[in-house]
Amino acid sequence: MKTVKNILIVCGLAAMVVSCGPTKKELQANIDSLNVELAQVNSEMENVVGILNDVQEGFQQINEAENRVTAANAENAPANIKEQLNSDIAFIQAKMKENRERIAELEERAAKGDKTAAALRRTIKNLKAELADKEAVIATLLADIDAKNARIQQLDVEVANLNADKNALTAKNAANEQVIAGQDKAMNTAWYVIAKRKALKEQNILKMGDVMEQADVVMEDFIEIDIRNVAEIPVGAKKARLLSAHPEGSYEIVKGADELAVVKILDAQAFWSVTRYLVVRVK
User: Fold this and answer.
1) In this predicted structure, what is the pLDDT of residue 41?
2) Within a domain: 12
3) Count of domains observed in the chain
4) Which domain holds residue 146?
5) Closest CA to 279 of 189, 198, 211, 179
6) Residues 278 and 199 in one domain
7) 154 with 29, same domain?
């Protein structure tokens, strides 16, 4: 009897244990709940990791653009790189704004008690510090670019003023050269006419045996010459006589190879000192 009694007690206790524990259905429900929570945590972690990757990629792109801007801002940079420089600056500013927004999104998650909040706080702090450092570097770089642009504008104005002065000086020199050339030409220009007595009278060059003044003659009847280049004047006749006043000894009338007369100027300065109009009568 005692043995049977003990068996009944054991069976009763076992039944009590089985009846007090969770059922299989309850265990499955707990497992499903944990799986849902785990999936939620994994999804949140994936979102956070995605944001972190975006921020890090943004910093990498900013660094690359910053290097290009630094190179473009160097003293020996090509002059035609300005368009790329402006593009890189705009890109940096856009990426900095995007990173600020993404970091703010992470802060918002941490503030809401997100399950990833504890892990995010230190990361957010580091990212904000990196962003602040980068903003300081970019601000310094942009200030340097602005200073150089201001200097370039100042130099452009100075160059424009120098070019204006140069152009004015060039124009003045050209005008002076024209004046000098005109004076030089006037100083070395002479005119001559060769004709018979009758033609000279008809041309109003010879009147009453005297050679008329310049104002009374037609200049088209004379031939213009540069006295520096003319030492002999062929007259096209066997006999010739100078009617205009020229010092003796400053010229002679000789015969050329064709036996025709030639006025040979021996001393040009003396020959043209009295008059610059040479009148030669031929027969």
Assistant:
1) 60
2) yes
3) 2
4) 2-168
5) 211
6) yes
7) yes
Q: Which of 99, 134, 168 finishes a domain?
A: 168
Residue 267, in any domain of the structure = yes
Residue 49 sits in the same domain as residue 89: yes
Is the distance from CB of 84 to CB of 107 less than 8 angstroms?
Answer: no
**Under DSSP, is residue 127 helix (H, G, I), strand (E, B) or coil?**
helix
Contacts with 44 (C-beta within 8 Å, 6 or more apart), sequence order: 109, 114, 115, 116
CA–CA–CA angle 96, 98, 99 (5° rounding): 65
pLDDT in the model for residue 271: 96
Query: Does 32 share its domain with 151?
Result: yes
Residues 137 and 196 in one domain: no
Q: Is residue 179 part of a domain?
A: no
Q: pLDDT tens-digit profile of 137-173?
A: 878 877 877 777 787 788 888 888 889 989 998 999 9
Nearest to 41 by CA among 103, 126, 119, 123: 119
| Dist. CA 154–CA 162, nearest whole Å | 12
Predicted confidence at residue 145, as pLDDT, reads 75
Contacting residues for 129 by C-beta, under 8 A, at least 6 apart = none
In a domain, 182, yes or no: no
Low-confidence ranges of the chain (pLDDT < 70): 1-21, 32, 34-52, 72-82, 113-119, 207-218
Q: Say whether both 235 and 115 belong to one domain.
A: no
**What Cα–Cα distance (Å) separates residue 158 from each residue in 41, 79, 166, 169?**
66, 18, 12, 16
Tell me the sheet residues that pair with 192.
223, 278
Q: What type of residue is 67?
A: N
Residue 158 and residue 267 in one domain: no
Whole-structure pTM value? 0.45
Q: How far apart are CA 134 and CA 55, in angstroms?
A: 13
